[in-house]
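worker-3 :: picked (Atlantic silverside) hypothetical protein
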Amino acid sequence: MMSIWGNFLSHFILTLLCVPLFLTPASLAHFLKNCSIDYQRNPTDDLILECGNSKLVTIPDDLPKNAVSVNLLNNKLTWIKKEDFGGLTKLRHLNLQHNDIARVDSGSFSDLETLKRLHISSNKITNLTCDIFQGLSNLTELLLDRNEIQVIPACALRFLTSLLSLDLSSNMIQQVTDIQPVLQLSQLQILNIRLNQLSSFETKDLLLNESSNLRVLDVSFNKLEKFSITTPIFPYLQRIDLSQIGGHSGLVWDITNKTLLENITQLYLNRPLISFKGIQTILHSLDSLTHLRLNYMDELIKKGLLSQVCKIPTLRQLDVFFNNFSFTSIKLSPCSGLRRLDLSLTSMSELPKGSIQSMKQLQFLSLEGNFLRKVPDDIRSLGSLQILRLNSNIISRLSCEDFFKTIHLRELTLSNNHISKLDKCVFKNLSNLTFLDLSDNLIWTIESAFQTALHQLEVLNISQNTINIIEGGDFRGLRSLQHLDVVSDKILRVYPEAFDGLINLQTLAVSLALEYEPKFCKLQHLENLTILFSIPDTWKSSYRNNYKTCLKSLRSFTVICNGYHYGFPLDVESEMLKDMKDIEEFTAVNIYVQAPKKDTFEFNHQLKSLTIMKTDLSDLDPELFHSIPHLQVLTLSECGLTSLDFVIRANLTALRYLKLSDNEIAVINETVFQSLPALTYLDVANNPFTCDCSNAGFIHWVRTNQQTLVVNAHQYTCSFPVDSRGSMLLDFDIQLCWGSDSFLCFIFSFCLVVATLLASFIYRFMRWQISYSAQLFLAFLYNSRKKMKECSPQFDAFVSYNTHDEDWVYQVMLPELEEEQGLRLCLHHRDFQPGKPIIDNITDAIYGSRKTICVISRHYLQSEWCSREIQMASFRLFDEKKDVLILLFLEEIHSYELSPYYRMRKMLKKRTYFNWPQAVQHPRVFWQNLKRALQTAEEATENENLLTGPRN
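worker-3 :: tokens ->
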């Protein structure tokens, strides 16, 4: 009993101590004041924070410790302090670009042990302290470009033991010796020192104990007058970028020993300030060159540079994009050994015949972003070609000869052209093609282009064309197709047999007119289906409510309706979803005109992601979610929701991400989130919030809860009341609510409830103990007063009995003791003073009598007043140490029935008592013994019985 009472008190006190937490914001809030969250559709523990473009002058102090990426791009930071990134032990990417950072304290990154990428570009850093990179032992990429760094001390780089890439471009490095500590990094493979103030690059000035592990070196956009490699410090160097280098007098290229650059295979030249002869010198010194990039070199190309380039016997890849080839004198025929050729963005309107005809080993060709009107003739002879990109031209027609001999072609991109028709013969020889992109053209008919060829095709994109009708069998020959996109707002009819033959199709995106017939029953391997409904003018007469899909393998289903419903019930019924028992993602945008029926997902128990948008959900039934217990992602945007009360009965115990943006929610009761124990992300942006005390609980919850991240909460604005419109929701001062009358009423109600609970608890478990203690205390006070008065007893005995035993007392006991033996007894109905409190009458009777006779029966034991009388009499017995108590049993009562009266039971084990049932045969003896007990002296010793009479 005392244990229960102690626990109750502990919880009560703890509750009272917690009350102040409702009055003041917690110091560790789980919302972000200056950053937004870049969440994923299926939220994971990877937390990506976007804090860019927020005019921050200091690092936010509320960055979650489990963030893996923090973007602080384009703010006004000037100083990185040591404690700014403390505790971010999971951070892998930190972006500090485009700020005004001039100072970074030593050890500022010491907690970022898992950091892989650190970007501090476009700041004002001039010096690198020795401990600036402390703790970054796992860093692999460091960007320090566009700062004001002149010197790089070796001590600053000693922690970067895993660094692979370093960008020091656009700084103020003046001598090659300034980068010597960088070249001593054992793992470094990529070094960018472009746009510095280097006037020469000579390896003889570098004193390195070991050769560098460098693979890529970018020295472009430096006014180099001399480039000299005379020592074997770059044995692994593979790529070098010499774009726009050279001084007023050109460039001195000093490579006396070709073996020092024998591993260089890639060379980039972009607007080099070098003469034609100088470039020839460079090319002649690189015997292993396989990849050459020549950008913005129109004049040199006109002088015949390409003819010289094609003489390099090892050359396999040539990039000449960003040049002007509007002229037709391109000489590429000597480059017969090329494997890859990039002629993108060269302004050519045609590729002269014979330009690339000799490239029998060519595997990759890009002609995108030009003005070609047809497929160049030379392509027909490129039998080894595997990848061809002709996108973003003005090609209007494909002929049967265009791909006549390109039998090894695997990828063909023809998007964003003017192609209007596909003849049957166009692709007949492309038996190895696996990827075909025909999107964003003017194709109006497919005819039989895909029926007899393209047996290996896996991906086909024919979206955003002018196709009106997809007939049965249009894709019949594509038996290997896995991904098909035929989305277009021009489609008016898709025949039921349109997708016959696509036995391996896994992903399908298609536009359908409203008359939705079962078109997918034969796609037994389809896992991802996206349907975009278009509503023609004839919709009202052609509407069909036939939704069966037969897709048992589907995992993701998206349905989007473009247009106005006209109030007709375009619904995705449970019958449509019946066979999709393994579906995990379902999206419906502008599909339902009212809330879906509660049995819509009764067969989709594996659903994990549900999105319903642009739907009136004012009559949403929470039972809709009862059949999808594994739901983790729920999006209900633009649905006219005004309350979150549906969450309480929705059984969303597994939900991790809840998005309710763009609704009509004005007030949120924070208690609804008790029904979402797993909630990690909450997005309620663009709702008309009320900024008054009705939202005080929600605001407090946003600030203090430590589990749920409220996405972009710092951007939520007020819509009501009018005078607060436009202000920030989280700026509302909830202290005003805690000090109002409503809060006082809350406190009073809270205390009243606690007091009621406490009283009920005491009455249920401790009322007898408290009552007994009170009576003992009153008896003690009364006894003290009696002792002071020293009055003689008024009665011989006070008789304590129950009214059910009154007949025996008056007809048997009273005549024998008062009439026969002359004793004066005190009886409550006769001798109690009227108008006096009962408890005072009892106390006066007990202490005003020499002894107390308790006439005990079962009714007596059940009486509350009789219990008080015997308790008070027993107190007098033990307090005065006098023989003042006589127990007289009218009935045979077993000892276990006396267990509530542990004092009486204890006395019965040691003292003599009177038993009337055993005295029936010898009543005179019984009364003589009772008289003797009443006349016995009150004084008693420790060894004498306090109760007299025979042991019956």
